[in-house]
Each structure stands twice: as C-alpha cells, then as structure tokens.
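note to self: dont lose this again. the chain is below, predicted strucutre after it. 440 aa total, dont forget to put it in the shared folder this time
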Amino acid sequence: MEVREEPYKEIGINYHETNEIYGNLVEKKSIPIFRRENSQPINFAETKWAEGHKKLLECKTLGEKLRLLSKMRKQMQPVVTRISKEIIDENHYKWSRLLEGANKIPEGTYRSLSQERELKYVPLDVGGVAGGHKFMAEGFLFKLAVDPKLAENCYLYGGDKPFLDRAAKAASQELHGANQFYFYFLHCGIPIQVPWQTIVDYRGFRIVAMPILPLADSELIYGSNDAGKTVKNSDAKFSEWMKAACAMNHLAEHKVRNVMLCTGGDVEGHKVVDEETKQSSLYLLDLARWAPPEHPEVTAHLPHPPSGRFYRLMRGEFLQKSLKRSDIPPLSSDTLTGWGAWQKSEHETNLRKATRLMCLEAVDSATFDIVTQINDVDLLTHVPMDMDTYTLNFPDVVDVATVCHRAGLPIRHIILVLFKLVEEEEELAKMQQHQSDIDT
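---
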C-alpha cells in the first residue's frame, strides 16, 4: 500500500554554499545536518501491528488473505500518515534551512541549533546509513530518506553534494522489492513474512513506514546485516524458497564472500524461534537492492549520477516478461557494486545486454500501447508536438507512467518513447507525402 500526500520534489539547494557550510559544520564540530544525539535503541516489544503477518499465514484461502490485507491497510494508513507528518513537521524548518546552506536559524522563527529542543520523536540507534534515519512510534518503524554524508564533500547518493530526490528513489525501491517478494510468497503459500510498507511524501521529504517485527532474538540466516562482514545462507528451506522467488524475476545466484545468494548481498533473512511453542517465523527485510541496476554505458540518453546503481534498478515487469523470454542469462543484483566481484565481467556483460534489450523492446511496447490508447495513427492531430523542444501533450486518456511501467520501462526513459513517436510521425508524414505525389 502506498500513501502520497504531495508530489515529491527536491528542496531547492544552493550547492556551492551547502558544501562550504557542511565543511564548516565538520571543522567547528557543530551540530550535524540530521541529529543523532540522544538516540534510543529500537524497542522490539512494540510489535502489535506485526501480529497481522501471523494472522495472514493462518488464512486458508487467497480471498481471506486479501480481505485481511484490505482491513489492515485501512487501520494502518491513517496512523502512519499522521506520525510521518509529525516527524517531518517537527524538524522540517531546521532540515530545509540547513540543506539550503544556512548554518544558523534566524532568531524569532526557530530555536538556535546550539540549544537543546525537546523532541517527540527521537532517532533510533540501529546503525546503517543507506536506509536513512529511523524513528519508532506506536508500533511502526519510520525510515526518513536522506542523503547521508560519508566524508568531507562526499555523499552516498549525490557525490560531492546532497540529493534528497535520489535518496527518495532509493527508498521507493524497498517498497518495489517488498511487493515483488510479498505477493509471490502470498500466492504460493510460502511462510516467509515481508513487512508491510507504505510511503509518505510530505513537504519535500519521503518516509518509508513499516510495522516493527519481533526480531529481538532473531538469527540471521540469509544475506548480511553488517555491510558484508558476515554473509549467511544457512537455512536450506529458506534458501530454496528464495531461489524460486528470484527465478521468477530472472535473478542469478552469485557468490558474495564465498556464500551463494540470489538477491543483493545486503538483503536480510531472519529466523525467530518462539521459546514456548518452538515454532519458527521467517522474515525477509531490507529489499532496496532486490533487482539489478541498469548499466550506465547503455543509457547514454541519461546523466550518470554517482551511486546511480543503488536506485536506478530494472523493473519487475521487464525482468519477469521480456528478459525471461530472451536468451540473456539471469542477472546478478550485485552487479556494478562492491558486492559483485565474483564473475564480474560475465555479469556486467549480461547486464549490458539486458539494459540494451530494455531500451529497445520495452520502449517499443510502451510506444505501441500509447498509440493504441490514442486510438488513431494520426499522431499530429491527437498528440500535439513541439518539434523545437521535443515535448508532447498527451491526451488525458493516456496514463503515460502506467503504460511505461506495464511495459517494464522506468519513466526516466520516457525520452526514448518520445523519440520513437517522432520517428513514427516522420514515417507517417513521408507515407502521406508519397501517396499525395502518386495521386497528383
């Protein structure tokens, strides 16, 4: 389920000033951009919403499962939306001012950064930087998407300057991955629980929210939760189910630190054993890198930002349909990353082929669907086009984003669809001119 309160847009940032201020903050040991002081450990006792996962496993039919999902969604959505807004409202002015390059908040509008302020929501001390800053409230875990600073003038997604929009895209990939595995497990009756998630976009920030799971005494059985220092695949049944789910998405089994995995190395599988009943519960978490990235060498029509491999991932529709029907071998989700050293050249070659196929077959499919929905071959009449700026005004009947996604094409490649439409329009004009010459 997904909640979008406002269209996401990046906060206006003066990058030159921002880099200077960030340097000053570090040199003067001032309060950092996003505070982590007074952080608290996660409380795994607040797992009331996670009980819905267990109830879901007890449902005997798919209809019962879907009805329970609908019921839980209606109960969770208003709570998650309210708390997400409160978290952002509580710190929005401070965060946005700092991102704009201000190291001091004007007096009379907000308390000075050097003063302590009573906060209702305190960041969690759970480690990790890629997932953003974590908060806990009313049985939910909230991940605020930020571009964390790794070193002086070095940010995870933006390179030498912060980019919140890229951090937000990376956060949305976790929801995409959760959907792919969740519904596969749901339909196949596999007892692996993927936490329900929702996205809230509000005031230029993005939060991913999910129920807190009972993982206090969990055992890591798949993937890594410490940046690759420890990698596991220790449960045979869990591994078998993961292979089946990844095969559906045409994902390759590959070696990470001498351990064979089918997903990105930092995807986590956990096992919890109830002390009283001795029954095991299985959980799959942190699916932000569930799919392989696009190869930047093939997407010359796009700018190539640093760390794009962490959020410019292929869509499930393309992996499950077009790619699976092709003769291209399965792809590794760790290609182009530090996790993908094993058979690196082979996996990168396969990724180039797959990206090229996406830019051809998925573009053709999306273009055909758009023309079909317009229901007329005369594009000049039904799709007004400015040939100087190459912009299209699609009729309201065409949902371009949905058409592209159904074809397995991320909307960032819409320019390729535009070029394809231009080619068809020019071809149509030539045919009409030729017919006119014949008639005359």
